[in-house]
Prior knowledge:
- By secondary structure, the protein is α/β, with parallel strands linked by helices.
- The protein is 32% helix and 21% strand.
- It has ten helices and 13 strands.
- Strand 1, helix 1 and strand 2 form a beta-alpha-beta unit.
Amino acid sequence: MASPLVFIDGDQGTTGLQIHQRLRERSDLQLIALSPEHRKDPQRRAEMINACDIAILCLPDQAASDAVASVENPAVRLIDASSAHRTHPDWTYGFAQMSVEQAKRIAGARRVSNPGCYPTGAIGLLRPLLEAGLLPRDYPMSIHAVSGYSGQGRVGVQAHEGESASQAPAFQVYGLGLAHKHVPEIQQHSGLTERPLFVPAYGAFRQGIVLTIPLQLRLLAPGIDAGRLHACLLQHYAEMEHVQVMSMHEARQLTSLDPQALNGTDSMRLVVCENAEAGQVLLAAVFDNLGKGAAGAAVQNLDLMLART
């Protein structure tokens, strides 16, 4: 049986390069690519997409939508790493650990939308707690996250590693209009009924994310505390790969969270911190924005889909 043909559309971008590096030595698939002179040729792109078994789209949103529209071969399956289809009802959301059945849904899907890096952390923390009824779906949720500058793509990498790197800011909060494109994705796939407030930031390090969500226990049902929240996360992820829940004992010993702690891996670490006396809890996620937050998730989704070919 011939190896499946995998086409990475946009293999020169930050995510596409990472995916290519992960797949290029594999013997169970065959990578195909556009030659440099044809990368901006819509006709050649359409020919390549329609000739492959699975295409991974690492493109800006509009270009990804255009690429999808060019698919005429009904056998072609797609993984879209852009945000163009993450809330689309006809696309399967590619966060395999989101629920017990999600990996099976991805394996059998024709169209899979890779999660955003920030939403991976937010949904990973919130969805199990909302599904279990430990958090009200209309909780006034505030989410803050700091990512390495590679989360900004080539622009961020060039600003911090190019000739003018000395002028790059050490830290910058952005999305101040509170309309970041990841907000609908977080709301829909976590299960919130009200729009969360999301404040992202970039730091002067290449990759890695710390995402935090503060909770006031007085706004939750009586009897819900950090221990119950932690137990719910622990149970949900007990049999799942790539997500680890730090013990409460370890969390109590923490004095800081390093966004780079899991760089180079496809893992995500979830943490529950508390001030029991004040009735406050902090949920946190640490992961590599280029690993579990992008390329790692895409390769995991590819492997699930290949298992069903």
